[in-house]
C-alpha cells in the first residue's frame, strides 16, 4: 500500500485524488494546498489529512507525492520531494523554462528517486492500443504522424498570460505523444501560430491556432494541429502512416445512438473535455506509477521525457516567432539523443 | 451485338433503355408500349424504332426482348417471346398468380429459350460482394439472415389496389435475395403485416409494415423487414450471421461529408430511391444478361427462381392472413427442391 | 445510507456487490449463498458479513435485499423479503412459470413493499438515450422496432436444460426492452426457433437461433433476433423506425483504433459480453433503485413488468412450438392492459 | 454542340476523351499526339480524327481544345490555342516555371479567350458539398483547413526527375484546393519535405513525404500532408475547422460491406487511385467547362488560379529547401491579391 500526499487541491488535483482513492494499492494520506480550505475539503472527502508541504516531506510514512500545484512550483517541489526521498508523479509541464527544467533533471538524477511526468494521454486506452500495434510492426515503418488536439473552448486571457503560451501549455501534450510514439525526440521543429479564435488571446501575446511540423533525423515527420476552440468538444485524434498501412485513433463519442431523418444522419459528438475523455487515462496513469514504484521499475514517463517535450515547445515557440525551422540542439545547447 | 426490343416505355423501361444503350454489346432496336407516344419518344431518344409487339416478335433481327410492361402482361409476353425464339429479360414478378407463373415456367421449358427475371438487387455491387464473401466461406456456415428494405414513401392507394399486396409487390425482391444468398427456397414462411404508415393502405386491404421469417429445412432462418415509408430514403441493408462471423452490407450514403457542431455529428442519409441506389445494379444486370446470352450460359436469375420468390410471397400472404406458419409445399402443391 | 443484503454470491452477485459498494448511498452489509464459502469470500471482499437468509430477513437493520440467486428461488425470496418489509431488487426472470410469477405479484401487492426487476439494459446509457429521444418525439410515432441480441458463445447443455429455454432465459431481456420502449405489452407474439449453432442445444430440447415478432393492438411491430453465438462478441443493438425517422443504438466497440492496410480497414469488434458492455448499466440500475427507495418513488422497473416480459416469453415458446401466432391474452387468461 | 480537339492521348487524355464523349453537348472531333499511333487509336475509339496540332488550331470548326499533353507543352499550347481563338481546358500545372506561367497568363489575357485549368478535385461531389456547406456559413468563419492527399504508390524515379518535384507535381492540387476553399491565395508558406518512402526518390533530388502550412493574412491556416505512398489506396480527405463546427469530407470506400469476426471488424479501403475516385469529378469538370463556354460565363477555374497554385508550389519548394517561411510576394515579385 503506497501512502500518497497530494500537493495541489485544484481541479486536476481532485481528479488525481479520485484516482488515488480508487486504486486498490494506494491510499491518499495527506493533501496540501496554498488554499488551506481547499486542502481541508478535499482531504476530508477522502479521509485524508490537510497538512503543509513541509510536514508532508518530513513525514517518513509518506511514500510518494503527486504534484498538481501551479506550474511555477513544479520544479521546486520535484527537487524538494526527491531530496526528501519521495517518489514523485508531477503534472506537466516540468517548468515553463527549459533551463530550469534541466537543472531539476540534474538534481533528480543526484537524488536517485523516481520521478514520473503526468502525460496522461499515453495511458488513454485507444492511444495505447495504437502505440502497441505500431510497435508490433502492424503498419511497418513509421513515416508520418498526425496529431489533432482541439480544446472545446478557449481559456480566459488571464490564464493565457501566465500559461507560457500555447506551445508550452497545450501542445506540450502532443510533443510528448509524438516523441513517445516515434521513440525519441525530433531533430527540428517548424511551427506556425496565429490568433483567429479570440482576439483577446492575440492581444495577450499568444496564439490560439497553431501547427507544428517535427522532423526526425531519419526523415520521419509529425504534424500537430492545435486550436483553442472546437465548439463540438474535445477533438483528440492520432493518425500514423507507415510503410504498410495507417493506424488511426478516433474520437470517443458521447453515445452510439444515431438518428436518421430527412435532414441526414445525426450521431454523437466527441466527449466534451479532458475530464470525460481521459477519466480512464488518469486511472491507468496512476496505476502505472504505483506499479512501477512497487516494482522499482523504470518510470513509464521519465523526467527526461518531460524535458524533451519542453524542448520541443521551446523550439516551436521560437520557430513561430522567427518564421524558420529551429533545431532542438539550438534550444538544448547540445545534440539531441535520438532514442529511435 | 445483341439487338434488343424493349416492351414497356414507362419509368422502369426508361432505366433499362439507358442500360441497353450504354452497354457496348447491345443495341436498342425497337420499343413497344400501349402508349404509342411513350414508345415513340423513348425510341427516338435512343435511335430506335417504335413498333408493335407483334412486329417485334415477328422480326428475326431482334435477338432479345426486355419486358418492362405492367405485371399482368409479363407471363403472356414471356410465353410469346420465347415461342418466337427470343431471349428474354423480364421484370419481376412473373405474375401475381403463382399458378399462372407455373404454367409460364412449363411453356418456357418447352421453348428451350433463356429467360431471366430482373431481380436487380443481386447485381448491386455491395450485395454481390457480401454473397461472394459468404460463398467463399469467410463467415463459415450461414445461420441467420436479416434483410431490411424500406421505401422512402408509400405509393398511392390506387397503385396498392393493383399491386398484389406488399408481399408480392415489394417483399418479393427480399424473398429472392434470401433464396439467392442461402442457395435455395425455404421450407416455410411465417409473416406478420399491419398498417401503421398510411390508413389508406389498410383501407385498400393491404399492409404497409411487414415482417416475414423464413425457415430452411436445416434450421437456417431469414428475417425480412419491410416498410412502405422511411422518410430518410431507401433503406436497403443485408446482414448475415454465420458460424464464424457476420457480414453486413450497409446503406449507400449520398455523400461522405460530415459536419460536427455542438448539435452532434451530421452525416448523409441513404440514397433516396431505387433509381439512385441501384443505377449500377441495373447496368450490371443487363451486362450479365447480354454476356449469358452471348455465351449460351445459364441465366444468372432463372424463371424458376422467379417462381420460387413468388411462392414465398404467396406463403407470406397466407401466413399473415391466417396467423400461422405456411409451408412452401402447401402453396406449391409439391415438395420444394432445396438447392442448399 | 441504504443497508443492503445480497442473496446470491455467484457471477452476477459479484457484479451487483461491486455496484452496491461503489454507490455512495448504499452499503453492502450482508451476503448469503447456499455455498457458504462463496458468501464468506464475497462478504470479506466488501467488509460485509456472511449470514443466512433467515438472519438477514429478520434483521431490521437491513433495508433492502438484492436477489441474485438461482431463478427457481426468485419468487419465494421476493415474497419472503417483502413480507419481512424489505425493498427488493431481483434479477430477471421472476420465475420460469408465469402462473407462479402471477402469484408472487399478488403477494407483493399485499405487502405494499417496492420490488424492482433487474432488467439492466434499460439503464444502458445508449438505450436510455434512444428511449428518451423517442419519447421526446424525435422520430414521430413508433412503427417498427428491431432488437438484435446475440451472445458470444453458447452455454453448456447442462445450463440449457434448467434455463427454461431461450425465450424465457435470453429473449426475456428483449421482450422487456420492447415493452419498455413501446410503453406496454403487445397483443400477440409469433416466434420461430431452430438449432443451427450447437446440436447439443437441439438435443436438450431448446433452440439456439430464434426470431420473435410482436404485434401491438394498434399495428406497431417489434422483431427480436437472438442467437446463442456471435463469435465476435456480444451483439446488442436496437433500431426503431418511426413516422419521421429512425433511431439506432449501435454496438459499443472495444476501441476507436482503425488500421487501414491493403487488406482493408480493420476496426474493433463489440465489447465481449455483458460484464464489459453493461458495466455502466449495472451501476446505473443500482443507482436508480437506491434513489427510488430513498424517495419512496415508483420502481423504475416493476414486478408487473417482469410478469409481462415473462408472458411474452411464454407466448413465444408456445408460438414456436405450435407454428402459429399466440395472443398474450391466451397465456395470461385475461386481456392485456396496454399501457400505450 | 461543342466541337473539341484533344491534345494528348496518354492516360489522362483517355480519361478526358471518355468525358467528352459522354457529355451530351460536346463532341470529340480530333485527337493529336506526338505518338501518332496513340492519337489514331484513341481517335478511332471515339469516331474522331487523328490530326496535327497545326491542323487542329487552323480549323475554324474546332471550338475548344483540351490540353492533356506533357507539362512542358502546356504554356505554349495554351498560348497558341487561345491565339487561334479556341476555348481551352488545360491539365495542371500551367508550367513548372512560375515565370513562364505568368507570361502565359498575360498572353491569354490579351487573347480574350477563356482558359480553364483542370483542377478536377474541385468537382468531386464530396469536396463540392463541403465547399458549399462552408460558403453557406454552416460552420461559421473558417479557421484551420487540413488536406490529406496520399498516392497509393510512388512513381518511378524517371518520372520524379521530370516532375518538377512533389510540391509542383502533386501538392499543387492541394494548394488549389486550399485557395479555392478559403477564397484566395495565402500570404506565406512553410514547408517540410523528406524522403522516407523510397530512397530512389531522395536520390533523384525530390521528397516523398511533405507537409506545408499556409497562412492567410487574417490568420487562417491550412495544413497539407502529402505522401507518395499509402499502400491501402488513394487517401483524399479534407477537413475544415470553423468558429461553429467542423466539416470533413472522408474517403470514398470501395464497398459498404463489413465483416465482423473474432479478429475485428473489416471494412473496405479507399478507392484505389484517381481514375476510380475522381471518375465523377472528371465528368463534372468537363460539364462545367462546356456549360461555361456555352454561356460565355467565367471559367470555373481560371488560369490566374492555376498561377496562384503554382506560386504556392514555388514558395513551398523554396521553404523546404531554406528551412524558413516564404512569402508569396517573394515568389511573385509583387503583392498577392487576396480574394478573401
Automatic annotation (TrEMBL), chains A, B, C, D:
- List its EC numbers: 1.1.1.18
What's the short name of a Pfam family annotated to this entry? GFO_IDH_MocA
Matches recorded under InterPro entries: Gfo/Idh/MocA-like_OxRdtase_N, GFO_IDH_MocA-like_dom, Myo_inos_IolG, NAD(P)-bd_dom_sf
Spell out the family assignment given in the record's similarity comment.
Answer: Belongs to the Gfo/Idh/MocA family.
Q: Where is the GFO/IDH/MocA-like oxidoreductase domain?
A: 127-247
Q: What is this protein called?
A: Inositol 2-dehydrogenase
Per the record, the domain of life is Bacteria
Q: Which organism does this record belong to?
A: Amaricoccus solimangrovi
**MF annotations from Gene Ontology:** inositol 2-dehydrogenase (NAD+) activity; nucleotide binding
Q: Which UniProt keywords apply?
A: Oxidoreductase
Locate the Gfo/Idh/MocA-like oxidoreductase N-terminal domain: which residues? 2-119
Keyword Coiled coil annotated = no
Amino acid at each position: 500500500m503506497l501512502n500518497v500526499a497530494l500537493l495541489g487541491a485544484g481541479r486536476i488535483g481532485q481528479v488525481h485524488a479520485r484516482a488515488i482513492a480508487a486504486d486498490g494499492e494506494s491510499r491518499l494520506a495527506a493533501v496540501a494546498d496554498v488554499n488551506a480550505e481547499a486542502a481541508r475539503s478535499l482531504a476530508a472527502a477522502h479521509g485524508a489529512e490537510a497538512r503543509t508541504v513541509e510536514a508532508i516531506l518530513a513525514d517518513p510514512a509518506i511514500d510518494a507525492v503527486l504534484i498538481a500545484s501551479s506550474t511555477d512550483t513544479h520544479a521546486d517541489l520535484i527537487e524538494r520531494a526527491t531530496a526528501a526521498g519521495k517518489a514523485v508523479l508531477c503534472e506537466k509541464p516540468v517548468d515553463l523554462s527549459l533551463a530550469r527544467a534541466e537543472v531539476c533533471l540534474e538534481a533528480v538524477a543526484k537524488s536517485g528517486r523516481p520521478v514520473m511526468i503526468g502525460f496522461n494521454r499515453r495511458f488513454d486506452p485507444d492511444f495505447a492500443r495504437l502505440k502497441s500495434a505500431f510497435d508490433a510492426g502492424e503498419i511497418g515503418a513509421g513515416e508520418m504522424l498526425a496529431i489533432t488536439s482541439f480544446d472545446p473552448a478557449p481559456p480566459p486571457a488571464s490564464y493565457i498570460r501566465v500559461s507560457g503560451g500555447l506551445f508550452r501549455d497545450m501542445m506540450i501534450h502532443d510533443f510528448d505523444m509524438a516523441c513517445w510514439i516515434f521513440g525519441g525526440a525530433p531533430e527540428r521543429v517548424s511551427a506556425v501560430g496565429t490568433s483567429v479564435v479570440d482576439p483577446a488571446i492575440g492581444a495577450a501575446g499568444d496564439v490560439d491556432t497553431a501547427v507544428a511540423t517535427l522532423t526526425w533525423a531519419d526523415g520521419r515527420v509529425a504534424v500537430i494541429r492545435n486550436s483553442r476552440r472546437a465548439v463540438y468538444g474535445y477533438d483528440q485524434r492520432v493518425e500514423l502512416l507507415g510503410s504498410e498501412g495507417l493506424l488511426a485513433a478516433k474520437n470517443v463519442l458521447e453515445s452510439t445512438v444515431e438518428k436518421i431523418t430527412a435532414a441526414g444522419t445525426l450521431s454523437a459528438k466527441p466527449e466534451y473535455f479532458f475530464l470525460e475523455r481521459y477519466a480512464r487515462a488518469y486511472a491507468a496513469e496512476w496505476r502505472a506509477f504505483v506499479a512501477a514504484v512497487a516494482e522499482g521499475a523504470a518510470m513509464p514517463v521519465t523526467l527526461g521525457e518531460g524535458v524533451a517535450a519542453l524542448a520541443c515547445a521551446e523550439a516551436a515557440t521560437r520557430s513561430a516567432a522567427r518564421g524558420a525551422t529551429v533545431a532542438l540542439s539550438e534550444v538544448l545547447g547540445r545534440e539531441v539523443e535520438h532514442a529511435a
